[in-house]
Structure to design on (2004 residues):
């Protein structure tokens, strides 16, 4: 998949991935800029290793405004004890750290959407350098990979874990089993149409067991959604045989997004009035939302109707909407 | 309360408040600026009048990132028919229109927090001019005033309507009755400590029946919260004898915020992990949230505990928190 | 008009207004800021004095994006010789120098619209300090005052000089005579409705002979419009007996703007399509411009029609228009 | 010219280019960003088709601050009827829509100057994606292409239509004939020196009949210049046999810009004083403009003189000038 | 000096100024804003009290880009033990905390220059509220006040402590004695010309013993300059009888700035070339610096010469200079 | 090293490099942008040639906030006379002119760090175009190249000149000899670890004699550091046989930075307290600096200790520090 003649990564880890024990450190990425000529970015990382065994790579903050993953992973990194694990856990709770620190989806440094920049490059933008380091240095160590997502500041999702439809059916089965072990209220088997540049694609092409999630949104977390993330991470480590104890089983419903009819886009700038909420069942033709022009009163709103039967699985979050924004996503249950 | 020798307002209404019928127009506020020397701001307004009778003033967008009120009021302005009313309804769905249009709490023009600038001034900033026009031209026409609020982008509330404790017990009773008619899931009788500059204070000092609300937050609305706002506005108009039909009664629970112990503030910058959600009951000493330092892993979070028994009535919304942010408000039920 | 107990101005002139000769210097205004703790603003000024006689104060750059005045005055300051004058000329070609330097109507320092801040204050914002210095130090020396305006980046005008209708009919007559001497293609006798804060008002209340202008617009100048300004300034100085030689007479047409019907405002955001140009005669009801919604094709534009017979005297300049912008001003000829 | 193995464009048209009738829709370009994770840009487009026949592609808003083209094309899109056409008209009135909406030459999203990014790329910046879609999806359908330009906010031009000197003399002849049919007051046969990345080059290399224009400038339009654009577009469609009726003939003067001596650049920052206006004839050595230092009075301006005999065909528009800005372009008539 | 009927301060201290012991806490200032509706600013404060005795108020960060004071005071706050003091020390190491946190002279919140806003106001901007709290709540407790300054990012000073010439000669003597005890390499007796709004003035008018400093500059500190600040603070506390032990005496040279001739201002924008360094002796007429125009080579620089004999006591720090910046200050030794 | 099929540079020199005499002119780089459609950047350049002989290329402003080089080179360009030279001197005092004019390390146009963009590209960003022009048009003319650096706004250095360890020992010797001739107080033989994109590497790969410097820092210059730069430039020209006269010899100390232990990075955001100053000798284990958390008092600082014996050769300059910033560099003397 990658050229072998790439330059070494400029990122340097202050932790030793081969050493037993629990280490909290950084990936240090040099970053020369107007306010620090010899500056760098310190990306927090935890490595916990207890002898031989499988390795799990747990990542949050791929997008910087999604919080269930970082909460679960900062918590796990601080609570994890050597006694309860076999093998290795690598925790990167805020993968695109500059974005996470700014509370924005993309990096304020280079506007990079990290999840469209894999496998990255050692000589590109800071976001590309992070992608490259993860791809060439961390992924080869991992057997199972969990990447946390939520809706961020502009979308809201029913909480689900997901695997992709894969060419390798055995790999796909393992991923599906991992999603089931995660135990989110909803589970999705996804068909990505535009998978170019996604972390998911890079991980799966390397043959790893991969789980991704969408656990809420709005740029916040709740006690409930954070709890799903914490339990899911622990369940996955147990499922992989790294964390001791049995998977804490939870009921899940499988959800599918079969066609373009699932997606509705706004055609005007205005104010969004939702007519159904997440999890509500809707019938084809039913109004699901309205966009109000805000520059005058007395004008009828644009009304958007469901193009299929389904359940509201995701929605535009901010009160204002721009033409072109995705305002609703419908899913269907098995 | 006000000097009588104030200059006339520079705002001009394109509607005639004395005319029968339904008019959709603007308050035009001159606003000379770099990108329009002879520019102005057009604030949408609707006036519906059907003969003599009481006048209701309904306002939204006092803070520009709160959406239940504007949704209910754009909707009401567009649906209202003359046949169903007696008297007059003045609808100002986006009172601080520049803030509303920008989707921000305060005005991008002058950073004005409109709800701290009443009674305003005809020669001040644009926000002060709006406050002044509402105070001197609209309020004198009104008998009952409903001002919609929600938590905005940075707070989230249990949905409630509220009245203030007032010196005039008859006025207070009428306000409490209006809150009950509104019919939100929760109702609050508030004691404002710092009421200087609030619209509420100006309205109440003029002897009007006044209802305010907090109907959700996060800078969004849901079908559910928008429904509470719509029903509440209609109920209040019915209660006031302006809209025909009976009040649609709904159960409400009364909530009190009796002391400073209700409020918890963060003492660090970091990431918020909520441990309880809105509506959850908590006991004194129970952990309600944690703030994680985000610059490294392996460090224990700051934990915040309840200073009293109560119900979580409001919370900090964004995933990141700054030292000094209010992270939780507890209320007690009767 | 002013309190006598104001603090001294913090501005200091590097020129001596009482000395004979031609001096080029500055008004130095201290301005402490993040990028210069002990910084100041240097406002260019020229004083030319040749013995006793009347004093003219010539100002440009009251708004920072209007160029006919500054061109005429930088040119005059550089060409003027002592031999050709009697008395004194004070030239302030870029009165709101921070705005002029930025090419913006208002000051980038404090967003001050200088022509709404007179008579100013010695302890206010930098814009207020400039107004105060001009009011308390320069105006008392002047007998005749010429303040140059044009439309700036957002308006375009037929080129005219103007005087105001004044209570003191003798003063008004002198001003009208000065306007006629200026010799612009158009001349206007104005009735300001909102004169609060204008330089004009401050000057006229001090009993001075005052001429103002609008000589074009768009944030540019042409050889033609700059020529009108240069000739007008010289003519006024000759008319005042300060510059030797006879007034260079030019035909002028008198224009009036008698009512609110002269002004048309846009009610939508969009793209402006003018249907008549400056100087064109229009009839009541004739379409004069259209505003196109730009977010989709196939939608009819908003059409604006003349509310009276007249001549197009001013128009909105930028291709895009915002709701509330003044898009056309009609005038009537005698 | 292009690799055949490019990825499909991410842009999707909501109109069917093969269907008869008039459709108003959008090119929807996905654009994920901090304020809309699943956002997109909707570029307005109109397709009018009446059976078989030639296809014209009419584009405006290649640069976002040029208005004659968008006015003519929004107007045409709204007025065109099926009855009056044979074949197909594709109207893209605001090609670089993000720039057009912002009123800026380049895109506020990626600072892209669209007219230097052709033939574009499906995996580049948003501006590159637009260029790619036009190149690979719209141009192959077209026989004749008209791309509207004006001077934008910083330049002003004599109104002209233009064709390029081309290697294929038959193609060149057809382009010249199309320019003549357009019927602008001035016509130009251009020799581009730096044609890399221009839309013009891409169109011409595909063998199409191509007309470009410069119809004014300053970031505005007049009734007169908009009229030239409207008439020119209709004339070209008639000339191509798509629109019924005869070409409305207008006199035009042919203008040439034969050498580098046509161009004058400022060597200082300062204020521009034009000494000649558009259309004025100048002699070699004649002063055509002056740049005044603005930080002090009494200093002589930099004077710029004509390097050849000619007519002032274009000029720097803003009142302020920076070192390196082109301040004047001379042309010669046949 | 102040009205007694001011509203109570909105600031609340989390420390008890009357309690014995060492407390580290905050002044909490409510600050509602777009990114935190119920936010506040937490200004760090330390109070150390050991029984009865005098009170010292030590402040740093009056300007936010000056570091000797904050270093000395964070250090003192962390090291101070109860055993070594008698009475009370109040330490406010970053008085204008928003400015200090941003590393800017003025507050990023309101652009307030704190040292021109005393005595402040409880209902003004955040900077004014801080000034008011210090004036009305902290100053009345203090007997001796030390306010640290340095040159900040744009000025550099010889390190000195200073007292003002005061009407009350006994107070002046006490201040001079305190300056001597501080023990900086240089000492200055200052005559402020424009003392309006300064903290110094407010403190002195309350009759306190007051010491101010300028201990370096450039927006940095050195081991040497930080050492001067640490030793000076300890010396002053010893001198006041609060800290045990004897004053650590150091030689100091007294410096005077007797007239306007001490100050030199740049008259052009350009690049500064210093010809003498801090502490160098200069003679009247000697070149002390040059400002180079940077837009072209081959042009002679503006040369600035000393207007008097003296020692270079302060200088403009950044490499670039703007017209109006103070570039050099000369002092004379006794 | 470079492809021969690169497009010609868009930069044009207004000077003739082959002509005898002293010429002051520009490199004109076309730069189309929103505020000047046909704008360009004028980079000042001086060429002095007196017959045949070697050519020196002297560059400053590679980083825009470093001043010793520009001061020495603007001065040299203005003072140099033909009589005193043999051969040619090309002086580019502000190579990344947009950055220099803004006073920032990187270009405000494209955020380009010029010293990481060599050999550049004729079709890239403006910074890349500058690099390309210097590489392909200026370097081939040069025999000796001097590129001035200092620490800029965020670093401070002991003043040194430096050469790199090179594969070609003869070239290395010549560079070392040139460094010695420069005569800075300190001299360094550097081993760059990450030399990709540096001007140094491009120059050296072309076989030129190359000297670089670090002559101070903080975004300022002193009379002393500017003097080192002026004398060094003259010495190098004398050493190369271009400037008449003998090298003015000065003692220098050779400094080495042998390992990663030389560098210390901050691990927290906070305020820097230096414990040693530039030039101070330190022992392994000795505290050299402390970083104070600034959000509260009473917390111990992070202390950084020397990892080796050495001399403090460079340090972080601003008072505030971010995690990841380099705070100290130690060197060892021979």
């Amino acid at each position: 998949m990658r050229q072998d003649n790439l330059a070494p990564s400029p990122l340097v880890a202050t932790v030793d991935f081969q050493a037993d024990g629990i280490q909290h450190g950084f990936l240090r990425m040099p970053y020369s800029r107007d306010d620090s000529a010899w500056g760098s970015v310190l990306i927090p990382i935890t490595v916990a290793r207890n002898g031989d065994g499988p390795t799990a790579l747990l990542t949050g903050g791929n997008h910087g405004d999604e919080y269930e993953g970082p909460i679960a992973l900062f918590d796990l990194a601080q609570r994890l004890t050597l006694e309860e694990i076999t093998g290795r856990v690598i925790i990167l709770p805020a993968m695109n750290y500059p974005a996470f620190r700014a509370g924005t989806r993309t990096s304020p440094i280079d506007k990079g959407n990290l999840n469209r920049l894999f496998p990255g490059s050692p000589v590109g933008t800071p976001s590309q350098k992070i992608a490259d380091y993860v791809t060439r240095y961390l992924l080869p160590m991992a057997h199972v990979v969990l990447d946390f997502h939520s809706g961020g500041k502009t979308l809201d999702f029913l909480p689900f874990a997901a695997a992709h439809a894969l060419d390798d059916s055995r790999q796909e089965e393992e991923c599906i089993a991992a999603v089931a072990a995660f135990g989110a209220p909803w589970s999705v088997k996804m068909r990505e149409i535009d998978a170019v540049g996604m972390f998911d694609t890079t991980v799966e092409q390397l043959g790893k067991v991969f789980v991704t999630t969408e656990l809420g949104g709005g740029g916040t977390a709740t006690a409930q959604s954070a709890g799903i993330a914490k339990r899911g991470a622990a369940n996955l480590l147990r499922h992989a045989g790294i964390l001791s104890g049995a998977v804490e089983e939870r009921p899940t419903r499988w959800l599918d997004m079969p066609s373009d009819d699932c997606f509705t886009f706004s055609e005007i700038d205005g104010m969004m009035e939702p007519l159904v909420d997440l999890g509500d069942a809707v019938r084809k033709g039913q109004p699901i939302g309205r966009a109000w022009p805000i520059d005058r009163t007395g004008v009828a709103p644009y009304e958007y109707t469901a193009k299929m039967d389904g359940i509201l699985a995701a929605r535009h979050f901010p009160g204002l909407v721009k033409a072109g924004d995705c305002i609703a996503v419908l899913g269907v249950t098995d």
